[in-house]
Amino acid sequence: MRVLVGVKRVIDYAVKVRVKADKTGVVKDNVKHSMNPFDEIALEEAVRLKEKKIAKEVVAVSCGPTASQETLRTALAMGADKAIHVEVDAATAEKMEPIHVAKILAKLIEKEKFDLVILGKQAIDDDANQTGQMLAGFLDWPQAMFASKIEPDGSTHLKVTREIDGGLDTIKVKLPAVISADLRLNEPRYATLPNIMKAKKKPLEKKTPADFGVEIKPQTETVEVSDPPVRQAGIMVDDVQSLVSKLREKGAIP
Amino acid sequence: NSTLVIAEHNEEQLAAVTRNAITAATKLGGDVSVLVAGSKADKVAAEVSKIANVKRVLLAKDAKLGGQLPERLTPVVLASHKQFKFSNIVAGASSFGKGLIPRVAAKLDVSPVSDVIAVHGADSFTRTMYAGNAVTKVKSLAPVKLITFRGTAFEAAADGGSAAVENAPSSDIKTDTSEFLSSELSKSERPDLGTASIVVSGGRGLKNGENFKLLYDLADKLGAGVGASRAAVDAGFVPNDMQIGQTGKIIAPELYIAVGISGAIQHLAGMKDSKTIVAINKDPDAPIFQVADFGLKADLFKAVPEMTALLSK
Question: According to CATH, what is the number of the domain A2-249?
Answer without folding.
Answer: 3.40.50.620
